[in-house]
Design goal:
- By secondary structure, the chain is of the alpha+beta class.
- Helices cover about 50% and strands about 15% of the residues.
Length: about 375
């Protein structure tokens, strides 16, 4: 046997070393026990081999024949013992390294669990904050929508009021969307933009309401000065009702006013010298268009005694207008008419001395002086 060759007892140690160096999942303490057991077994084998060699007669006889052969077992045993000691030292160092790696792995595992918990808490906090922000934005959007709806209602009312009191001189018509253009994509920024836009609308609305209030006061003052209130109408109806008759049915000179007048048909004892004239007469050529002075429903449209061809319009609030002596009537009973609509053509029918329009206003069936209504703004 060559000195470089190993005894069979050394082969398990080399195999164990190769096995230790391969990837494995066995705990480090179990590896240590197994390796130490193998090292102990190897030492015992070496010791037994040495003892048996010394006691065997055949080996002693062979040793006397060849000194080289008798010295080989002793040399191999010494080499195996030295290698076993070296392996034991390597195993001890390897076990220490494995134990340190296990401690490091355990520490990293605990650190990773702590970091994962912290990350989970951070994510939960961010999600909760995002949900709270979304709910806040949603609530804000609802309040803004309600505010914008209220502003729209007030603006609509203001528009109707301006129609009643009339727009100011030089007033320019305007309009637009109820939300600002090019809203930001971020919900919070979009909500702030809508709030700013609503504030602008409120400020503009305050200015409009102030202007309406000023013009309404002026209109009430004009109604009071006109004498319309003396016929029994309330100031609000006389000043702001769109159905109240305003202006003249035709453009022409007044030939006879409201009240007691000389009877144009008086002749001897057949007619009274004076009579009550229940309206105003406008002298116009025959065939002149006669305009409704307010919106309403036609009640009479046709011949009616001394009125000749008569048109009567009911304007509501107990107010009605009469248009008499027409040459022709252009509307029918029950028909809805608007202010300024042509309802008849002037003429000389009925009790009349010439072509003209008899214009009369009645409140709750009683004739009143139409003159104060002639100057009312449309």
């Amino acid at each position: 046997m060559s000195p470089t060759q190993r005894t069979p007892a050394a082969d398990p140690i080399a195999a164990a070393l190769r096995w230790l160096r391969a990837p494995q999942v066995v705990p480090s303490w179990l590896l240590a026990v197994l390796l130490l057991t193998m090292i102990g077994t190897t030492g015992l084998l070496v010791h037994a081999t040495s003892r048996d060699t010394a006691r065997t007669p055949d080996v002693a006889a062979e040793a006397s024949e060849s000194s080289a052969v008798t010295s080989a077992p002793s040399a191999d045993a010494s080499a195996a013992a030295a290698e076993a000691a070296a392996l034991k030292e390597q195993l001890t160092s390897l076990i220490a390294d494995l134990e340190q790696a296990e401690r490091d792995s355990s520490m990293l595992f605990h650190l990773s669990r702590e970091q994962a918990a912290e990350l989970s808490e951070t994510q939960a906090a961010l999600q909760s904050a995002e949900q709270a922000r979304a709910h806040e934005v949603q609530d804000l959007e609802g309040r803004i929508a309600a505010l914008e709806e209220q502003i729209d209602t007030v603006e609509s009312l203001a528009a109707r009021m301006r129609q009643l009191v009339g727009p100011p001189d030089g007033d320019d018509a305007s309009g637009g969307p109820a939300v600002p253009a090019d809203l930001p994509s971020d919900p919070g920024e979009a909500a702030r933009a809508r709030i700013a836009y609503a504030q602008q609308r409120v400020q503009a609305l305050h200015a409009v309401l102030d202007e309406i209030s000023t013009r309404a006061q002026a209109r009430l003052a004009a109604v009071e000065q006109s004498g319309v209130l003396s016929v029994g109408l309330s100031p609000s109806v006389a000043a702001f009702s769109p159905d109240v008759p305003r202006g003249q049915p035709v453009s022409g000179p007044v030939t006879s006013g409201f009240g007691v007048r000389s009877n144009p048909f008086a002749s001897g004892d057949s007619e009274a010298v004076s009579e009550m004239h229940t309206g105003i007469d406008f002298s116009v050529p025959q065939g002149t268009p006669v305009l409704a002075t307010g919106p309403g429903v036609v009640r009479i449209a046709g011949p009616s005694g001394a009125y000749g061809n008569l048109v009567v319009i009911d304007h509501g609030n107990g107010i009605s207008t009469y248009y008499g002596h027409n040459s022709s009537v252009l509307v029918s009973p029950g028909q809805r008419v608007e202010r300024g609509q042509v309802v008849a053509l002037s003429g000389n029918t009925g009790r009349s001395t010439g072509a003209h329009v008899h214009y009369e206003i009645r409140i709750n069936g009683t004739p009143v002086d139409p003159r104060p209504f002639l100057d009312l703004s449309p």
